[in-house]
Amino acid sequence: MDKPYAPSCDNNRGPILAVLQQYFTAPATVLELGSGTGQHAAWLPAHLPHLTWQPSELADNLPGIRAWLNDAALPNVAAPIPLDMAAPWPALDFDHLFSVNTFHILAADEVARAIATGGARLPAGGLFVVYGPFNYDGDFTSDSNARFDGWLRARNPASGLRDQGWVVEQMQTAGLTLIADHAMPANNRTLVFRKA
Ligand SMILES: C[S@@+](CC[C@H](N)C(=O)[O-])C[C@H]1O[C@@H](n2cnc3c(N)ncnc32)[C@H](O)[C@@H]1O
């Protein structure tokens, strides 16, 4: 099959890797939520060889991820698994969670469920790293983020940029504390949470 392609992955993968290299320093299993095309799973773990990378997505998107992973042939990436972030997760072991550009796609109640499940399933000390555009104190951080939010909501009224403070509250309720909030290119952020 033709591999699905998202230009944003090529643009954001370098800066994301630079952040992950600060936190994912020891051997561990990372569960990626909403792996999308599979481009991140086919590239990031090549530069983090001490990690075991577990991609996951809604079942319909797994063939595209497999196509990227077949070509990349990375020894530290597992076959992608079907996982609906907002539904009960399958039984599996992982040390950290990672998700890129999903919190503004899922409905707010789905994000809350994903955080609750992730918080319950992460081991003590586990990290939940979330990349994407966020609002602060209810405000957009740029005109382009405001336009993007309008485009998202026109496509699906349940989508939309989440407020960083709201995400922090959901994480706290799930037992996770914000340990870093990195500014990223193009008005994105990387939020790093740690389970107590
Ligand atoms: C904007 S894309 C980001 C994909 C990828 N992480 C990236 O950075 O290119 C959002 C992804 O979330 C996935 N998604 C939407 N709802 C989901 C859910 N309930 N559980 C898991 N993934 C979901 C979509 O299939 C889509 O691939």
TrEMBL record:
Gene3D superfamilies: Vaccinia Virus protein VP39. Pfam families: DUF938. This is Methylase. It comes from Isoalcanivorax pacificus W11-5.
